Amino acid sequence: MDILISGASVAGPALALYLNRSGHRVTVVERAPALREGGYSVDFRGEAHMAVLRALGILADVEHHQTHMGDMSYVNESGKKMASVPGDLFAGDVEILRGDLARILYDATKDRTEYVFGDSITSLAQDADGVTVTFERGASRRFDLVVGADGLHSNVRSLAFDAPESAVTSYLGLYCAVFTLDNYLGLDHTGQLYSTPGKTVGIYSARNNTEAKAMFYFGSPPLDHDRRDVTRQKELLAEAYRGVGWETPTLLRKMWQADDFYFDSTSQVHLDSWSRGRVVLIGDAACCPSPLSGMGTGLALVGAHVLAGELAAANGDHRTAFARYEQEVRAYATGCQKSAVGVSKFMVPENRLMAWFMNQNYKIMPYLPWKGVIAKSVRKTASAITLKDYGLSRPAGTAPRPRPSGRAS
């Protein structure tokens, strides 16, 4: 089949890699002008996550690029260490920068997948035989299936599903921002976090200490702003952290030079169904658990594994495949979403008493018998699905048929 995927971050290329092995012709359209290689660290833990990395054939590459992060330290305004958070609480079995993972998946698919950067879908018209897709820049084309792997603010979802974004998303009370900067503190596979009521800011080393990532979480009512106006987003972050101490003023100054600035709400997506006819959603577009869960990337890869596998098992019958895909993944996605509820109170303390209480707990955590309870709970959630072997762990041996020259219309 000819399959269009919207979104070239993680879920889309992962699905493309599986679909290539089934012999499908895959096109990935991405609004950004090039592959987006910025972003925060993402981790994988438990057998389900590791099984998908092995099935995709990228586990060795992921391990080669892993962060090897150690403990994170909470510090006071003067930079004095107050408490530590064990590295495995954040890093799981293997942790990698989102941008590095995106590059690995792109490199694994670029020779057998058509990537169209700098364009996006403007309309979808379904009929009994396929979907006519129009684009902002390119000519309209016909596809057998369309997949929305385009994140929390999915364009495909808004076009194909009869519901505005506000009706299918729930805001968890925090905004987050991440960007790359120089490792000016000389951090060695570690990071520092500073919390004040309503706000947490941090910096951690990345890419073998050659750079660093700045991270911000702050409580706020929903903000009315243009999601594509990066300058305004930086202004909002600077306004939210005006007067906050520690390294915050330096981080904000360096923010203005960052070309990979990411800013968004911590929100979840809840849909009654993940498909409409020949259109289906995966990853954050279907069931975003929010960055607070630490499960979004693993959930995206699991979804890609199951969707591609069910399409293969159903011999391309999309109605059967879409139904089975959702049946297999929905309970798992719900568990991932539940894991994020309540995390905001620990990520960003509401008041000074809460901040003090958190620091005391982190100080004594290494000496308590239940020190691994949180990490075990997260691992249990990540492993709460038994994946089928769909036979897609090996390349199909034959390349997909050449793309017909007359597909554009």
Automatic annotation (TrEMBL):
GO terms for molecular function: monooxygenase activity. Residues 2-334 form the FAD-binding domain. It holds the Pfam family FAD_binding_3. Gene3D superfamilies: D-Amino Acid Oxidase, subunit A, domain 2, FAD/NAD(P)-binding domain. Keywords: Monooxygenase, Oxidoreductase. PANTHER family: MONOOXYGENASE, OXIDOREDUCTASE-RELATED. This is FAD-dependent monooxygenase. It comes from Nonomuraea spiralis.
